[in-house]
Amino acid sequence: MANIILIDKSRVASIIDGNMALVKQSVLNALRIHYEQAYVQPSKVYLQDSPHAHKADRIIAMPVHVKSHALVSGIKWIGSKHTNPQHGLNRASALIVLNDPGTNVPIAVLDGALISAMRTTAISLIAIERLRTEFRTVAILGMGRLGRMHTNIFASEYPSVQEIRCFSQHAPFEDLARQFPQVMKCDTFEDALKGADVVITTTTANSSYIEPHYVPGDQLLINLSLMDFTIPVFTGSDIVVDDWRQCRKAEKVLKSAIDQGLVLQADTHELSNILFGPMKHKHFPGRTIVNPLGMALEDIVTAWEIYQQVKDDASLPTFEIE
């Protein structure tokens, strides 16, 4: 018999909401583990009800075994529907299960939605701080949960940012424009991109639409939604990925470029390598696109940090399994 601790969204939020420093450090720990190759991370499994389903309509299973720092195994099970916000739901929701690697018995189940959103935002911040020491104008396309989270952080914690140019087809964000003078509501994505030093996509785009002439300078492009930039943007930029092996398998724009022989592994740099490896002093002065598919390693290490803080709390609910 074993008792599994249940860590719901309110308890997760009590630890990490408003504490991006903790999440960033957890993600940095995960990236160091990635660089040291002290993990086993099988390919993601995508579950869709049709081969013609919208790219954002899927459930993904993301397992990993961590061999250093956080000695744990786990899986994130994250479901998404691009129409969920129309029904008052978050686009994505997630559960994270942690297992004791000594026995493989589950030890905790956590709400994973906030963990997933904050570790994704942490990746943006880590990449930006590594690749652009100075930036004043940020464009954010898509103003759902991730877009709002990025906007809040840049407006409140980055005094050098003078303008945050936001565009969203559906999600309202007038409250942010009223709260922060840096936030500008743009009528088109083209307007948002004009003059931006950093571009962040957090949309539910189903096909690519941003051509090179929309980003003609030396911008840093954070391609969180993975579908917005066309292949010529990739081939005309330095490319940074979180994990080459996983990126080359996911049915996104970068994989199309790889399949056509337009992007080779030698054309890319893994983020962990430019943070901790021989490339840590390399400069990327031209247009650079960061294509973070998202790794289970980041989610599970962050969840493990939360678990460490609450595991001895006898007030947490549990349930018994055989």
TrEMBL record:
<dbReference type="Pfam" id="PF02423">
    <property type="entry name" value="OCD_Mu_crystall"/>
</dbReference>
<dbReference type="InterPro" id="IPR003462">
    <property type="entry name" value="ODC_Mu_crystall"/>
</dbReference>
<dbReference type="GO" id="GO:0005737">
    <property type="term" value="C:cytoplasm"/>
</dbReference>
<protein>
    <recommendedName>
        <fullName>Ornithine cyclodeaminase</fullName>
    </recommendedName>
</protein>
<dbReference type="InterPro" id="IPR023401">
    <property type="entry name" value="ODC_N"/>
</dbReference>
<dbReference type="InterPro" id="IPR036291">
    <property type="entry name" value="NAD(P)-bd_dom_sf"/>
</dbReference>
